[in-house]
Specification:
Elements (H helix, E strand, L loop, with lengths): L1 E13 L5 E2 L2 E2 L5 E3 L6 H13 L5 H4 L12 H14 L3 E10 L9 H11 L7 E6 L5 H4 L3 E11 L1
Parallel strand pairs: 5-6
Antiparallel strand pairs: 1-4, 1-7, 2-3, 5-7
Helix pairs in contact: 1-3
The protein binds ligand L45E5XJ5 and 2C-methyl-D-erythritol 2,4-cyclodiphosphate.
Keywords: Isoprene biosynthesis, Lyase, Metal-binding
Cofactor: a divalent metal cation
Subunit structure: Homotrimer.
């Protein structure tokens, strides 16, 4: 059995917040705003997994109206989502994710993101691909107002 899912998320970039992406804190003059730590990449991955198993999205499981998730570590949320996939007898086939950001430069941090994500999903790093693109200064990402991420996953029984 093969299950596929896709996820997409956006968070605003503001001053006074840490810039945490893929479980890695990246030095930057702005950080991502959210109820949780606003890790846009881990949210897109979580939503892709939840999509693959027909379980809606992270807002359904970890509501932003619940103080329990205020400043929540999104890596812990991803680990909880992964338990739901494992309970269905599923393993990660592979995932492919894209961070959409004009700045900061993600490339130096991507190997560490892959390591963190592979560990959370109990898989080989070869099954996890993370990449980044600018939008050539166009749109909200291009103006540095926010960062987006998207992900597709393939889960196998
Ligand atoms: N925030 C980003 C955006 C891009 N990269 C890397 O730079 C390459 C060129 O980006 P383009 O948008 O001009 O295609 C891209 O392939 C990424 O490797 C990055 O590290 N951080
Ligand atoms: C992650 C959660 C946790 O309350 O809060 P946010 O950081 O606001 O992130 P979002 O991508 O809007 O998803 C909703 C919530 O699940």
């Amino acid at each position: 059995m093969i299950k596929v899912g896709q996820g997409f998320d956006v968070h605003q970039l503001v001053e006074g917040r840490p810039c945490i992406i893929g479980g890695v804190t990246i030095p930057h003059e702005k950080g991502l705003l959210g109820h949780s730590d606003a890790d846009v990449l881990l949210h897109a991955i979580s939503d892709a997994i939840l999509g693959a198993i027909g379980e809606g999205d992270i807002g359904r499981h970890f509501p932003d109206t619940d103080q329990a998730f205020k400043d929540a570590d999104s890596l812990k949320l991803l680990e909880e989502v992964w338990v739901m996939a494992e309970k269905r007898g599923l393993k990660l086939g592979n995932l492919d994710a894209t961070i959409i950001a004009q700045r900061p430069k993600m490339a130096p941090y991507i190997p560490q993101m892959v390591e963190v994500i592979a560990k959370a999903l109990k898989t080989d790093q070869a099954n996890v691909n993370v990449k980044a693109t600018t939008t050539e200064q166009l749109g909200f990402t291009g103006r540095g107002e926010g960062i987006a991420a998207q992900c597709i996953v393939c889960l196998t029984a």
